[in-house]
DUF4919 domain-containing protein
Amino acid sequence: MLPARAQAPDAAQAERDAAIARVLASGDGRGPATAYVVARAIEAHSVILHLRSPFLRQRSVEENATVLDIWTVRGTDGAEHEIHFRVPAPDTLPPEQREAERNVRRILTSGDGLTPETAFVVGGAIPAEYAILRLMGLERGVQALVNRGSCYYDVQTARDPASGETREIWFRLGGGGALAYSGRCEPARN
């Protein structure tokens, strides 16, 4: 269903592969009771990249001192599959890691990026857009700034290297700096 990635010979890749193997040994990821156990959301990202399954969306459910992260991916069979990860709640992390963990979770749960209405909300953080594209297994292409419905969007036309297909990924920007808007941002509606 989900293919394994071939290992690269260098030491850094061997270390990454060993970390991924530890995560994969922690469960089967098919449900809450058998969720993969990771220390941070970025490790879930690494597993998703390792599996080479296109990322579609992510949602989180807080439970006591942990968070159940549910990542929806497209399998090699073309169907959507959920992969479950158990992650410590951000408040249980060291202070220097809390904000980054919250930001990753906030962006991934803000939408799916497929339309202006469901755009990922990045608040103007362009590096976050690039990280999300990498997470989705996409290569950056043309980027356009669009003003729609009193909101500013970065629309990334990205390419899927596996299929060669291109698609638009929408990111809603915040209202600070040069992109300031007056009043409340009302996302575009069709």
Summary: The chain has a mean pLDDT of 80. The chain has two domains: 25-96, 110-181.
